[in-house]
Amino acid sequence: MKIVEKNNFKIDYSKALNENFFRQDTKTVAKGLLGKVLVRKIRNNYLTAKIVETEAYLPDGDLSCHAAVGKTQRNAPMFEAGGILYVYFIYGVHHCINIVTELEGKGCAVLIRAAEPLMGLDIMSVNRKNNDVNKLCKGPGNLAKAFGFTVKDNFLSLCSKNLFIQDFQKNNKNDIITTKRVGINKSKELLLRYYLKDSSFVTNIKK
DNA sequence: AACATGATCAACT
DNA sequence: GTTGATCATGTTT
Question: Distance, angstroms, CA A12 to C1' B5?
Fold first, then answer.
């Protein structure tokens, strides 16, 4: 396997998170994913980016969670056991990727909202039709587009050599900011958005 | 009718 | 530079 390295990050499948990580409490997973690296291999190329912003969507008391309406064709992946992908299409234009959490039947996930591109920037730029590194994976729609995720990728395992989350940066509690979630109208008062304080790759929210 | 968004453009500091 | 209006567009309710 070709050695690939960038910003002190080196792909190492032995450091991939296993199912047990994703099957924890959703808030724990959402916070825990910050600083870790999303790795996807497509057509023998690696795309990698450090996760800097997430949102939790909870199985109980969260009307904004897609699973709150019960199991449907669209949200079916959310009811599987944690550790797989849930991708949905939104506003007729964008895809958003989520990592399913907790146990089978629960209905919850973590939305990946932004990441710091590390490797495969050339391919991400082509996918995005944009060369601005700062913005390649800024925002859930942009992130999914940079990585080439679509609804066809629903149910994909996040514990495979072609798609996994690699342990990387350790955060202090002070490094993580917690706020209300973005772009929702139900259960909007819940503080379930998390991001790394000093990252310039987090989405800029306008009030 | 609403939607877990983003690009663009006009008008303003 | 920033801010706010507008729009693109498919799927779900």
Answer: 33
